[in-house]
Each structure stands twice: as structure tokens, then as C-alpha cells.
Amino acid sequence: MAEARRVSRQVRRAQARRDQAAPRARTALRIDLFAVPLLLIAGFVAYHNALNGPFVLDDFSAIQNNETIRTLSARVFSPPARAAVTRRPLVNLSLALNYAFDGLNVTSYHVFNVVTHLLVALVLFGIIRRTLRSPVLRSRYGDRATGLATATALLWVVHPLASESVDYTIQRTELLMGLFFLVTLYGALRSFQSPKPRLWYAASLCAFALGLASKEVIVVAAPIVFLFDWLFDSPSLRAAAKRHFLLYAGYVGVVILYLLVVGTRLRWVLEGRGSRAITPPHYALTETGIIVHYLRLALWPDALAADYAGWPVANSVASVLPSLLVIGALLALTVWGLAHRSKVAFFGAWFFAILAPTSSFKPLPHEVAAERRMYLPLMAVVLLLILGGEALLRWIGAPRGVGLAVTAVLAIALTLVTIRRNDDYRTTFSFWSDAVAKRPTNPRARMWLGNYLYENGRTSEALEHLKEAVRLQPENSDAQYSLGVVLARQGKVDEAIQRYREALRIDPENASAHNNLGIVLAGRGELDEAIRQYREALRILPGHANAHYNLALVLAQRGQVAEAIEHLEAALRLKPDFAEARSALDAYRKLAGT
Fold first, then answer.
1. What total number of domains does the chain contain?
2. Residues 419 and 531 occupy one common structural domain
3. 539 and 418 share a domain?
4. Could you tell me the pLDDT band of residue 130, with boundaries at 50, 70 and 90?
5. In this predicted model, what pLDDT tens digit does every residue of 290-305 receive, in sequence order?
6. Residue 469 and residue 443 in contact, taking contact as beta carbons nearer than 8 Å
7. Alpha helices, DSSP H, located in 213-344
């Protein structure tokens, strides 16, 4: 009898636990069903006004002047040199698909970027939720995993610090790399929890390979996966390496294959042309101040800038001592945490490892800072704040709805800032005038604003900005070139030639300077030298439509009409609405009787 009563009590307790768990399970299911559409809707609202911005900066060489994206052929996998797509065939393929869909209409390019950003948010949500439900964290976060993952992905997807990667068309390099970085980690995470991991190994390795074809920074994904394995799944470093040897060997194999295909010099080794050298120690010191700036923008995104050219280089420890102390402390805490196998240290490892290729010792002097570099590191900042905030609310005994309310307020505020930030990308003038307003000593922003003003007939204002750009950075080849263009238009040919030659002294591979030098030389009757300059421009940039057109005109003057027709046809392939080239082609065809 006593035994029957004991069994009956156990049954009642089990039923009570099931009754208590059922509402939680139903709540979790409702949140699961709610999370995905919430993230998609929030992301779309944040970027609904980001679909019509013009091409800017590297968009011109990577898209507008990129002949390899004009057809869906094998040429797509051989992107042009000296462009943001160099050695990044998957990015080039994505641009070719956009071009096949709607030519150079910017809308399809922006839609691709926004959709990719939303996909990244969904994968981030999946990784966080699965991690918080993993055996080592389930007891602490299991019943709140979906809510915390949703909050993190929500604040990240609408955060304005990520907006450069979405709004600036060619920075889909960051978007695609970020997507495949997270899929690499997600596939590895699933393999750790699967009795048959090889399918997930394959998924992770495929994503890693696709990421390498998008942006080389993804090489950091391999050590990040290994750290995740050690901290969250395996009992030791040796056990992690042994249990998942095939996966890690696969990552190494993919990198080796990549190097064999594209060459042994990774892209960031090639960066830095056309700007004064920065030594590795000075670059590292400079980056401490920049990383602190990134962190401030992550917490309070009030001074977002499209371009950071002209950021002062740190020439001494004293000049950046506060920033150096902050970054040094964060690095020390990360290393200490890893030494003690603290899971919190993964946040620091993620943050610093992903920034390391661009923001440590290897100088990238033409672009010491760029907000897009925070695209993935921002995830660690947001998740740490979410988990810290959740712990604080639990500690003070706040009602359950407080966290939801705070998250909603933050999401709305960040969305409004992002929408406002998108407006800065709506026109070329708004883009560069905002850049100059945010950083008046930025020579590149001054130069591009001057270019825009010149193209819109505001020559005196343009000259003022271009002269200031050259004053701020005399060794800037593009600024010297742009000033030469305005001087040539004013009839100051000798001064223009001087600026073009100075631009070519600084950067002999400046295709536009070769082209425009050819124009003024042709105007002087120096046809042989003009032809040489045009051919040099086309050697450097075969997709330079204006160089094809200008060369055709000079060749026709020399009686080489057949070759002139070939170059006009090339110009029209690159720029189908090139009216002057169309008119010249019709005239030369009649002349040649074809």
C-alpha cells in the first residue's frame, strides 16, 4: 500500500512538471514562429529607403567599368585587377547576375544586398539559439534561448553601424563573407551535435570555400570554429582536434587550394597603393584609437561616416594612450579568459580575431578605418550586451516584460537612425557632403565632393574642394588627377598636364589620368603620345569605355578606321547608352563602307 502511494505521488509530480512545461513549450513555439518574420520585417523597415542610392567609390571599378560582368560566361570568374572584386569571383558572379537581370539599374543591386543582410540575421539567430540550447548552456538559458537569440539578431539587423555594408553596393563582399562565415560556424556546430557529422562537415567546408571566393577575411573562421569547439563542446584542445580532425584538415585544405588557384599573396598584402607608407607599429597604434571609435559607434551610433581617409596616424604611444589602455585591457581579459577556459572570452576572441587582418599590424594606409569592418564583430558586442542586460534584470528581479520593452525601444531607436543613415546614400551629393561635414579634413571626401560639383556645373566650388584635397594629401594620385580635370576644362592646359603627370608619378597605374592626359595631348596635336596614353589606360583597365572612345577618335584621325570601329564597339558594349560613341560608330561605318 505504501509503495502504491509512493508511485502515485511520483506520477502526480511528473504530471505537474509536464503541466508546467507545456505552457513554456507553447510559448517557445510561439516565439519561434514569431522570430523569423519579425527579423525579416524589421530588417526591411530599416532598409526600405536603401534601394535607389547611386554607385559610389569602388562601385565604379567593380560594377560600372567591369566588363567581365556583362555576360554570364566563364569571364565572370576572372574579375578585373585593381577592383573590389579582384580575387573574389563569387562577388563578381553576383554582380553579373544583377547585370543580367537589369543592367546597371541600381535597384536590383541594392535588393540583393538587403536580402543578403536579412539572411545573415537569420543564420545569426539560428547559431545563438542553438548555442544557448547546447548541453553546457541549456540549464541557464535553455528556456530563454529563442527570446535572447531574437533580441540579439533584431538589434543587430537594424543597427546603423552595419549600414555601410548594405548601402554601399560593392560592400556585398562583407555581406557574402559574413553570410558564409556564419554558415561555416553553423555547419560546424551542427556537426558537433550530430551522430553522423560528415554531412555537416561538408556544409561547413563548402560555406568556407564560398566565403574565400567572397572575401579573404573568412580565413579567421577556421580558428573561430576551433575555439567554439573547445569552449562549448570538447573537453580539451586535443580532444577537439582529434574528434573533428576531418573538419579542421578540410579547412586547411580549402585554404591551400585557394592559394594555389589565386596565388600565394592574399588580398590585404596587395592593399595600400597611392598613399604614404605607415609602419606596422604606427598602424597598430592608430588602430587602437579606431577600434575604440568602433566600440563607441556600436554603443552610440551618432557620428557614422562614409569614409575615413585622413584619419591621423599615431606616431607615438602618448598620442593614443587612453585608447591603447582600453584595447590592451580588453585583449588581456580575452587572453586571461581563454587561459581559464571562460566562455565569455569567446566574445573577445570573435571581436579581435575578425578585426585582426585589417586592424592590427598589416598597414592598409589607403583606408585605415571603415565601418564595414565591424559587420561581424558587432554581433559579439550586441550579444554580450543582451546577455549582460538579461543577467542584470534577473538579478534585480525585474518583471519579465521589462526586457522585452527595453529591446523594443532600442530596436525602434536604432531603426530610425538607420533609416536616417540610408538617406545619406540616396544621392552622390548627400553622400559626399555628409562625409565632408563629418570629417572636414578628409581629402578623399573633399575630392569626390569636388568631382560631383564639377560634373554639375559648380566649377568654382569644385576647384575649392579639390585644391583643399591636394593640400591635405599631396600624394593622393586621384586628387591630383581630379584637379587636373577641372583645370583642363578652364583651359589651363599646362597646369592640367602638370597635375596629370603628378598623378601618374604617384600612381603609374591610374587609368583615368592616362586617359585624360591623352585627351589634352591629342588637343595639342601630339597624337602618337595621346595614343600611347590611351593604350596604357586600357592595359590597366580594359573596361574603361571613355578610353576606348577617345582612342577611336585619334585612330580615325590617323586613318586607322577599322581599329577605331573595334574600339567604339567595345565602348558601346561597356556603356550601351554612350550616345557619342554610337554616333561616331555610325559615321565611321559609313566611311568604311560597312
1. 2
2. no
3. no
4. very high
5. 999 999 999 999 889 9
6. yes
7. 221-232, 237-243, 245-262, 280-299, 321-339
